[in-house]
Description:
- The complex is a heterodimer.
- Chain A is mostly helical.
- Chain A has 2 domains: 5-133, no CATH class; 153-222.
- Chain A has 11 helices and no strands.
- The longest helix of chain A has 28 residues, at 106-133.
- By secondary structure, chain B is an alpha+beta fold.
- In chain B, 29% of the residues lie in helices and 26% in strands.
- In chain B, the strands form 3 sheets. In chain B, strands 1-12-11-8-9 form a 5-stranded mixed beta sheet, with no helix packed on it.
- In chain B, strand 11 and strand 12 (266-275) form a beta hairpin.
- The termini of chain B are far apart.
- The model of chain B is unreliable at 117-124, 137-165 and 225-230 (pLDDT under 50).
- At the A-B interface, helix 1, helix 3, helix 4, helix 5 and helix 6 of A face helix 1, helix 4, helix 5 and helix 7 of B.
Amino acid sequence: xxxPINRLNLSSLADRCSLELVKRRRKEAVDDSYCLEIxxxxxxxxxxxxxxxLQGCFSExxxxxxxxxxxSNLALLRDSEENxxxxxxxxxxxxxxxxxxxxxxxxxxxxxxxxxxxxxFRDMMRSHRRSQEVPLPxxxxxxxxxxxxxxxxxxxxxxxxxxxNNERERRVxxxxxxxxxxxxxxxxxxxxEFSNEKEIYRVNYNxxxxxxxxxxxxxxxxxx
Amino acid sequence: xxxxxHVLALSEESLMSVAYEDxxxxxxxxxxxxxxxxALCQQQLTLYRRTNALLRAKFYRFxxxxxxxxxxxxxxxxxxxxxxxxxxxxxxxxSCADEVQEIRxxxxxxxxxxxxxxxxxxxxxxxxxxxxxxxxxxxxxxxxEDTPLVxxxxxxxxxxxxxxxxxxxxxYQAESIDLSLHLSQTSNGEIMLIGIITSSNAEAKVSDFxxxxxxxxxxxxxxxxxxxxxxxxxxxxxxEVDGGGNFTLEPLPVGSFVMLIRLPEQEIIIGxxxxxxx
Lengths: 224, 278
């Protein structure tokens, strides 16, 4: 008679799991309970060996997801496939422990793992977008930031908003710089607020003028 | 800011528009000519571009939940507190609202075990290796059952070069993958190419190669790509690797060929080899 699954040693469990995964890839009928038991021991029992086996069994899935992801080409220019695999398991580990997650189906567990990878790629895209925007410093920029530099980005944001004249300017700043929209897209998405692009260029000009006039006050921003 | 008094000087509004759009679309020819020559306008434009770039780099979605959080939100895997925070955030944030829609769509199409062959959108993801031709071995003939039959000096299939009988079987290596190619004859006298794949990696199993596609081309075959980097060659013969790492290609005409083997983690190209029949 077969040993109960929760009494199987990890080595047998790993073999059964590998076998089931081969069957899965061949689209044959499968029993996911062995794979789920590895997830259970790795996550709920915090068994390090089970966690290593889990990574060994499902790294290939993560690699295939990476290669077929819409942002794969850009992502692989910024970091290696192995690092994305490692990051995915690491973030997944933190999340499942915080949430005390228990999975009832293998598909559920893998969709969580896939969600982690997709999120990492989305964060990479945001970071790529920001890094593309960073211009070269001006030659006469002061080297050291001013002493009154705000503590965090929210303070910086509030300082900038506080220097603006009215709600309209604050709205343009939000759409242009927070959401990264171009004037053309702003008019397209918010025709009830902005009738044409020229209006946005005009408001934007006033904003840039004002911030440049307050350059000394914003040295920590303009000196980066 | 310095006033530009030149009669053709661009308005601040026009200069700001060039900071966002292609100047060809925005400016008239005379305005473009002016911009090329006017240091003051160029200086202003640089200032606008730089300020815009600095502000975007600093503030672009700096308060949005991370992509991982949004994914977990869509999967319903967040605590009540985090879920409510994101609920409230996406009511006001069009970027996150759009992203949540995209994520939901992607999760609806989720496939836990997709085919391992990459789609054409990510052709670079699979490593392509050119196999190295390693050794000559004594000629052997194989039966259809892949069992070595007999070593024969008068093998019917030889290559027409300086040392014809030493060309087959051919051994190739690509990292940990070893490939042995043999020529044999079918019962009706046609040429058959037999391949045997093994791996020197102790962790790899030959059965992992099962179902991998093998394609035979006339040169240059897969070595020729069009301007989009997409292979255009049609294969002459195709087959699949069996559970023992073996494959056969038949009937093989005489001529020169290039072979492509698509393994789960890499593609192996066997450079041009020639088969003649005497």
